[in-house]
Amino acid sequence: PKKVAFYTLGCKLNFSETSTIARSFKEEGFQRVDFSESADIYVINTCSVTENADKRFKTIVKQAQKVNEDAFVIAIGCYAQLKPEELADVDGVDLVLGASEKFKITDYINDLTKSDFAEIHSCEIAEADFYVSAYSFGDRTRAFLKVQDGCDYKCTYCTIPLASGISRSDKLENVLKNASEISAKGIKEIVLTGVNIGDYGKGEFGNKK
Predict the structure, then answer these.
(1) 87 SS3 class
(2) Which of 64, 53, 56, 101 is nearest to 81 (CA)?
(3) Containing H/E element for 149?
(4) CA separation (Å) from 81 to 38, 63, 98, 139?
(5) Separation between Cα atoms, residue 107 and residue 38, nearest integer Å
(6) Which among 97, 99, 116 has a CA at the least distance from the CA of 107?
(7) pLDDT band at 209 (very low <50, low <70, confident <90, very high)
(8) 189 burial level (CB within 10 Å; 0-12, 13-18, 19+)
(9) I need a surface site. Which of 32, 40, 57, 149 has the fewest CB within 10 A?
(10) Above pLDDT 90, what percent of the chain?
(11) Backbone angles phi, psi at 136, to 5 degrees
(12) Distances in whole angstroms, Cα of residue 124 to Cα of each of 67, 108, 193
């Protein structure tokens, strides 16, 4: 089977989303390997508030290219939404997916041929108004469960609303269903995560209340 590897920058929400995206690759028949191993696809989940985000990203792309120079490199996450052209210009990057597109990542990988220019699929951030559930497994004793996404507070110093969209929450019954799935795997601790958890319950599935 084709192999895929992941690198996550930033918050626990990114970790939960990487984990969910990794499961979607598994469903498509991919084998997940460590980022230090040779893979056909490397997915880098970026962060817009990480210090020197662009430098960190370039370093990680180089790491992947050292292991397999022919690998298909995909950038997703907050920085990919905020500065898609900047990431697309990095040598070796093949695909940049924005806030809404990252969850449909396997739809974009029919052709893994590398070209001179990266392809960008990034919506207007106003269109990132729907909710996608996610959860991760860390050290097998703790899981991060996403319950909320986005932020409505337009603080001048903060890039998060521009990168993740409006505040929206998961439905309680869905949170409980995901928590049960996590618990059934024998995990003892669940950490609830989001962009602004204090806004939980506002805008379930992107519908303002």
Answers:
(1) helix
(2) 101
(3) strand 148-149
(4) 27, 22, 4, 29
(5) 22
(6) 97
(7) very low
(8) exposed
(9) 32
(10) 73
(11) -125, 160
(12) 34, 18, 24
| pLDDT tens, position by position, 43-71 | 999 998 877 888 899 999 999 999 999 99
pTM summary value? 0.90
Residues 6+ apart with CB under 8 A from 99: 78, 81, 122, 123, 125, 128, 163, 164, 165
Single out the residue of 202, 185, 108 nearest to residue 142, CA to CA.
Answer: 185
Run of H or E including 31: strand 31-33
DSSP H or E stretch at residue 191? strand 189-193
Name the amino acid, one letter, at 114: K
